[in-house]
Automatic annotation (TrEMBL), chain A:
It comes from Poecilia mexicana. Signal peptide: none annotated. It comes from the Eukaryota. The lineage of its organism: Eukaryota, Metazoa, Chordata, Craniata, Vertebrata. One of its GO terms (cellular component) is kinociliary basal body. This is McKusick-Kaufman syndrome.
TrEMBL record, chain B:
Coiled coil: none annotated. This is Bardet-Biedl syndrome 10. Belongs to the TCP-1 chaperonin family. It comes from the Eukaryota. The keyword NAD does not apply.
């Protein structure tokens, strides 16, 4: 121990301000403090998992806005890292969520369970890491197989499975406070918006369009809607009576406020009597004249337009929109076919003009300018309404995640069974496989057969514990011993009443019947190979998870757990 | 008053032991990662001793000096930083023990401390001298015969040299752990075979990869490690500044710009005076100037169009007028491209960047097969490939994508790649280089080093050895302490013969000290089980035959390139043993040799210091722990 204290006296940054020495932890996973922190984090995330999750309120000590959420991306960002290991896990999961938008809580609960189980089973870390990696490759290989029991091929001919997928994402976020019809409505809108962004006539490569989301507070969720094209704020009360569609429009990317920023770093000395301002305004009006001559009826600028020019254009019947912002530039270019103009002195080339239909849409107290092209477009606008701000911001987040998840299906047109069934299925499969290949695998991995089985058991238990986390009302989690699906039993029912209490499994594909056998998830059961479902099953899954996101989450969770298990020393700069 | 701090041997030992205790956690097969958080909240994981030590921000002057030595050594060789600290600590401990036991060995001193320090200093100097003169021969005679030769000459994806693969696997295992060593070995080999210039030395392409690795790899976080891959062509780590058109005719023409496309009318210091009633400004005023710059942009774009150029890579940020003009002309423009990427691009395409936009010649125009956006993780990059690169440069350019769940891990993998290049370069270095340097400095040294029966033909032997070493590049030996065991044995034998032949038994033979210190390395490798340590030692020592000359003959037999690694390893005389040792992995002899030398140099430097002056400047303007290579090299290499 004296070495550690000596070391901390060695470690002082030689900067102007004396900094406090770094904190070192030897073998961090052996310290109860670290383990407690990890357990706390696991409990916190576990209780936010699934459609019946307990919500979390995040507020800081200086009176900032209170956020109510159960979304992993918001929750994890709110956890201020008290320990480097916590921030390591947090960073990995947040990275996953930012790439795939889904399964963040799954990944974090699984990762933390793996670390906790590894601590329990008293094996060398290297053995656990190697076995984890081997079992992970078993899982991913199984999931990639055509006949994998927990995979569903998505049928793009009907929107039903897409809506189910969207609805699973939306209903897993209880903070939105959506009723059944409301979440169905939002799911339909999400799928509609997604389908609008997929181009119809595909050239050599697909380029998806964009959904622009506009939140609107104080309206009923059922008033939310999706429109093709863009909705922009109207500058003032305008009448489109005398305008015939489609309109010619021009789009400026340079500022039209009358500044000259591109002259260089030198100084400009203006002598008395020279009026540069009026020279510039004259130049801007020249531009206005040319645009009017070319019969432009819609004048849009990314930045600010000089008030004189605005007034001049409006007086001549042109709709002027300024401060569009960089984010709407690209959709507007795609929508109208206009090319952004940044030159003030040369005449606007004819090709730079675009064409668009314009109409006015009233929305509650507001009026919006609706731009939609003559032909097909991949740009659409989604108006999201909700009763209050917290719910609305969560709803907006959820809709963006749903869009991302739906887009991922284009990469791999399949989904995984939700409701914990994929986890229990995988656990049963891995348990069965690892029992079978123990004699071949253990020498390759450099461990004994017992070690291999013990580590394998820890892996399966961690998977099952994720399925168990879906239940928050003291109900019991069970696995059926034929298909290895996940079932929940309410706390007031006993096992004998299972057939009546839970008619369907977690994902809604398997129906309970007389001759089914169940086992509690946290108890031991004899390993078995999960039977494939009958193809002619009349039941459609009611809960689906994104395949791409879940596979990635699985891999990220195991790799992060392996990394954490490999950490032997922690050096923490506490400045 | 400047506070003085008398430096005792025990202080030095204490500082180095503290460093050793950190490094030990990630040393050897049971070692793991060290996790850091910076004050910015950034998380970093590493198993590389160099990164661990440099991240410590030490304040102790001696510790900082050691870290600098480690840094310098591992920047060159890419490997051995943990062994460095281990060996240094072990040597210090032994010297400390020797000095305290017999402090008045050389000359009488006033105080015990002073005489201890003098003894230690003397021992260190003799150790260094011994290593500089005798170590290479001892290694050539006693270690190399048990090694293999790695050849990268016929390096293709299909027929790898087995020993080279094993060398890389061992390296990646020490850096990234068991889980990913095979995966990254394969990726590394694939990268190497893509960049292998036909009919050229492999070290050439490794050197190239090492130099341009920054531009050649992309780190992606949030994705599993197994998604790491090679992609053809080059990735520019910027997004298109103009919307990139969907379908294009191929091949594309591209140019690189160093400056602004829109001329800056006024440079810093220029003054534009706007007067009243001036003939020029009267009618147009300031507007005239800005319209002139816009016109010149148009003319540049028109010139580019006449050459058929459709991709512009710019080192600087361009004005919105330029972007709009490029968009209207249907050109893709990428701005703020880093210097490294531009340099790689120009090397691969064979063009020169344009600095004066008005003079564009055909030699500025590169031909690309494609140029498209590429989404990697959260970022959109520009992905391009060069036309007819295989004919011109005889390589297939490709970039490396390194994926990991977290940024820290991706960074760790990238560092491991970079160090693997350095390690291979060191491994491919012939041992001879240092020998010629030595011969220049000590040409008159008698060859007293060899065994009694060797003295007569010592000179001949030396010449013979040199000739052999010319061809001998890329020597490797089984990992797991084999090098240390063999050298320990050799040093032990040598010390024995010395003490017999030379009649100064009072002097402690320094070779014995080094031999003893070397054993600390395998002792740490097998720290979990002493039995394994003894077993490994017996196994290695059993390989050493009684007659050293027979061995070198044996060595010459195995000298030829190992076409099929496994077979020729078996054909080695101690075939069974060697194969068993191969399971432990391989490490480069050249790296090890340089490591021992570097440690001894660091030791000498450390023990030459006798006092620390703490000066208190008003402002700490002096750059602390600078990673500047120039100051490093000037400071550490005072081996006179």
């Amino acid at each position: 121990m004296h070495i550690a204290s000596y070391l901390s006296s060695l470690m002082q940054m030689s900067r102007l301000v004396k900094k406090s020495p770094s904190v070192c932890t030897d073998l961090p996973l052996n310290s109860s403090d670290v383990c407690n922190k990890l357990r706390l984090m696991k409990e916190l995330l576990k209780s936010s998992y699934g459609p019946t999750a307990r919500l979390k309120q995040v507020h800081n000590n200086i009176g900032g806005a209170v956020v109510t959420t159960s979304t992993s991306s918001v929750l994890l960002q709110a956890i201020s890292s008290s320990h480097p290991i916590v921030s390591l896990i947090k960073g990995s999961i947040l990275n996953h969520v930012s790439r795939f938008s889904d399964c963040g809580l799954f990944a974090s609960v699984f990762c933390l369970s793996l670390i906790e189980e590894a601590g329990r089973c008293d094996l060398s870390q290297n053995v656990i890491i190697r076995v984890n990696k081997h079992l992970l490759s078993l899982c991913t290989a199984h999931l990639q197989q055509e006949d994998c029991g927990c995979k569903v091929q998505l049928d793009f001919c009907s929107s039903q499975s897409l809506i189910t997928l969207a609805r699973s994402v939306i209903s897993s976020k209880p903070t939105c406070v959506l009723s059944e019809p409301e979440s169905a409505h939002i799911s339909r809108l999400a799928v509609q918006a997604f389908l609008l962004t997929v181009p119809c006539n595909i050239p050599d490569k697909v380029r998806l369009g964009r959904t622009v989301t506009i939140p609107m507070e104080g309206h009923s969720v059922l008033e939310s809607a999706v429109f093709p094209g863009l909705l922009l704020d109207t500058p003032e009360n305008i009448s489109l009576g005398n305008l015939c569609s489609p309109l010619r429009m021009v789009l400026f990317s340079a500022s039209l406020a009358g500044d000259l920023s591109e002259l260089g770093d030198g100084r400009i000395e203006v002598h008395q009597g020279v009026d540069t301002d009026s020279q510039i305004v004259d130049q801007l009006l020249e531009l206005g004249k040319q645009v009017l001559k070319d019969e432009v009826k819609l004048f849009v600028c990314q930045k600010v337009i000089h008030p004189v020019l605005q007034h001049y254009l409006r007086c001549n019947g042109v709709i002027v929109i300024e401060r569009l912002g960089i984010s709407l530039m690209e959709p507007l270019i795609q929508l109208t076919g206009a090319q952004p103009v940044a030159t003030l002195h040369t005449t606007v080339p004819w090709e730079a003009y675009g064409e668009v239909h314009v109409s006015v849409r009233p929305f509650g107290s507001k009026t919006k300018l609706h731009l939609h092209p003559a032909g097909k477009t991949t740009i659409c606008t989604m108006i999201l309404c909700h009763r209050n701000e917290t719910m609305l911001s969560e709803l907006k987040l959820v809709c963006q995640k749903t869009e991302h998840v739906l887009r991922l299906t284009l990469r791999e047109p399949c989904a995984l069974l939700g409701g914990g069934c994929t986890e229990t299925h995988l656990a049963a499969y891995v348990r069965h496989q690892s029992k079978n290949d123990v004699s071949e695998s253990s020498p390759v991995l450099g461990c004994s057969q017992t070690e291999y089985l013990l580590a394998g058991e820890a892996f399966c238990r961690s998977l099952e514990s994720v399925a168990t986390s879906l239940e928050h009302d003291d109900g019991a989690s069970l696995i059926d011993l034929t298909h290895a699906h996940h079932w929940t039993l309410p706390s007031d029912a006993t096992e004998e009443h299972l057939e009546d209490a839970a008619a369907l499994c977690g994902c809604g594909v398997v129906q309970s019947c007389q001759n089914k056998k169940w086992s509690y998830l946290n108890t031991e059961y004899a390993e078995f190979s999960p039977e494939p479902l009958l193809t002619a099953s009349p039941l459609q899954p009611t809960v689906l998870d994104s395949f791409t996101a879940k596979v990635n989450a699985l891999e990220v969770a195991v790799e992060t757990a392996n990394l954490v298990l490999d950490v032997r020393y922690v050096i923490q700069d506490v400045n | 008053m400047v506070p003085l701090e008398q430096l005792h041997l025990s202080h030095v030992l204490q500082a180095v032991s503290a460093l050793e205790s950190i490094v030990l956690r990630s040393f050897g097969p049971e070692g793991g990662q060290v996790l850091f958080t910076r004050d910015t909240g950034q998380v970093m994981v590493s198993r590389s001793g160099k990164r661990i030590l440099t991240a410590l921000h030490l304040d102790h002057p001696l510790a900082r000096m050691v870290v600098r030595c480690v840094w310098k050594h591992s920047t060159i060789t890419g490997d051995g930083s943990k062994t460095f600290v281990l060996l240094l600590a072990s040597l210090l401990r032994i010297i400390h023990a020797t000095a305290t036991k017999d402090p008045h060995m050389f000359q009488p001193h006033n105080s015990t401390e002073a005489s201890e320090a003098a003894t230690a200093r003397h021992l260190a100097d003799r150790l260094l001298e011994f290593a500089l003169t005798e170590l290479d021969e001892l290694i050539v005679l006693n270690v190399l015969p048990h090694g293999f030769r790695v050849s990268l000459e016929n390096f293709t994806a299909e027929t790898h040299d087995l020993s080279c693969q094993t060398l890389l696997v061992s390296f990646f295992r020490t850096r990234l752990g068991y889980a990913y060593c095979d995966f990254f070995r394969n990726l590394f080999c694939e990268l190497l075979s893509h960049w292998k210039v036909k009919d050229d030395r492999p070290s050439f392409s490794i050197q190239f990869l090492n130099n341009s690795f920054l531009a050649l790899h992309t780190q992606v976080s949030g994705v599993p490690v197994s998604c790491s891959r090679l992609i053809e062509g080059q990735v520019i780590h910027r997004d298109f500044a103009t919307p990139c058109p969907q379908v294009r005719k191929q091949p594309l023409k591209a140019v690189v710009f160093n400056g602004y496309l829109q001329p800056k009318l006024l440079t810093t210091g220029d003054v534009l005076e706007l007067r009243c009633g001036d003939k020029v400004t009267e009618d147009r005023g300031i507007v005239h100037f800005s319209s002139w710059t816009e016109k010149s942009v148009e003319s540049i774009i028109a010139t580019l169009q006449s050459f058929g150029v459709s991709v512009l890579l710019c080192a600087l940020k361009q004005s919105s007028a330029v972007l709009a003009a490029a968009t209207q002309a249907g050109m893709c423009l990428v701005e703020c491209v880093s210097e490294e990427e531009i340099s790689l691009f120009t090397q691969l395409s064979g063009v020169t960047p344009i600095s004066d936009c008005r003079r564009i010649h055909p030699e500025h125009i590169a031909t690309l097969t494609f140029c498209k956006p590429l989404l990697l993780g959260a970022h959109r990059y520009v992905h391009l490939d060069f036309h007819d690169c295989e004919e011109r440069l005889k390589v297939k350019p490709c970039s490396l994508v390194i994926c990991a769940p977290s940024e820290g891990q991706a960074d760790q993998h990238a560092c491991a790649f970079q160090d693997a290049f350095r390690m291979l370069l060191t491994a491919l270095e012939p041992v001879r280089k240092t020998q010629t340097a030595l011969e220049e400095t000590i040409p008159s040294k008698k060859c007293t080093s060899l065994h009694a029966d060797n003295i007569s033909n010592g000179t001949a032997c030396r010449v013979h050895l040199h000739q052999k070493c010319v061809t001998e590049t890329g020597c490797v030996i089984s990992a797991g302490g084999t090098f240390e065991f063999l050298l320990h044995h050799a040093l032990h034998q040598y010390g024995h013969s010395c003490s017999v032949s030379v009649n100064t038994s009072a002097v402690v033979p320094v070779s014995q000290l080094l031999a003893k210190a070397l054993l600390s390395v395998p002792r740490q490798i097998y720290s979990r089980n002493l039995k394994h340590f003894l077993q490994a030692q017996t196994r290695v020592v059993a390989l050493i035959p009684k007659q050293p000359h027979a061995l070198s003959a044996n060595f010459i037999h195995t000298e030829g390139p190992l076409g099929d690694g496994k077979l020729s390893l078996c054909s080695c005389k101690n075939g069974n043993m060697s194969l068993k040792l191969l399971d432990l992995g391989l490490e480069s002899v050249s790296c090890k040799y340089q490591l021992v030398l570097a440690v001894l140099q660091c030791l000498t430097n450390l023990l030459r210091i006798n006092m620390v002056l703490q000066t208190h400047a008003v402002l700490h303007t002096e750059s602390h722990d600078s990673l500047n290579a120039h100051s490093e090299s000037s400071e550490g290499e005072d081996e006179d």
